[in-house]
Fold this protein.
Amino acid sequence: MKKIMLIGLALLFMLITACGYGAGRDNINRRTISSLDLKSIMGTWYEIARFDHRFERGMDQVTATYTLLSDGGVEVKNRGMRNGEEHISIGHAKTTDNPGQLRVSFFWKFYSDYNILAMASDGSWLIVGSRSPKYLWILSRTPSLPEKTLEYVVALAAQRGYNTKKLIYVKQP
C-alpha cells in the first residue's frame, strides 16, 4: 500500500511539474533595467497596450501620472474612461534595492511588483511587468507610438516570453 502511494505521489508530482505548476516557471524574463533615475519616469504616461485584468477592464484613455514625493516615494495617479465616466485610482510606490523595480500599492499596505523591463533610450516608452505573467503594460509619453516603434516594443515583450497576442490596444484621444 505504501509503495502504491509513493508511486501515485511521484506520478502526481511529475504531472504537476509537466504542466508548469510545481516549478513555478512561466518562461517570462522579468529582468529589469539595470539603472533608473527615478525623476526620469515622473510625469504623465499614456497606456498604449495592456493585458486584460479586472481593474482596467473596458477602460480607454488610460494614463498614469507619477509624482515624486518629499519622502522619496512616488504618488501614482491612474485615470481612465469607462462608459463615458472617469475613474481615478491613487496609489503610492516605493523604490527597492533593484533599480528597475518599484513596489506599488493602491490598497492599504498591499504592495505589488512594478518591474520596468525596458525603457527607450530617450525615455519615450516603457515596458512594465510584474511578478505575475498576467500583467504587462506598454506606456508612452505621447498618446500613440509610431507604428515601427510599437512593433519593436511589442517584439521586445514577446522576446521576454509574454504572449503579446493577448495585448489590448488602448484608445487614446
Remarks:
- The domain at 31-169 is CATH 2.40.128.20 (Lipocalin).
- Helices lie at 2-18, 147-159.
- The two ends are 67 Å apart (CA to CA).
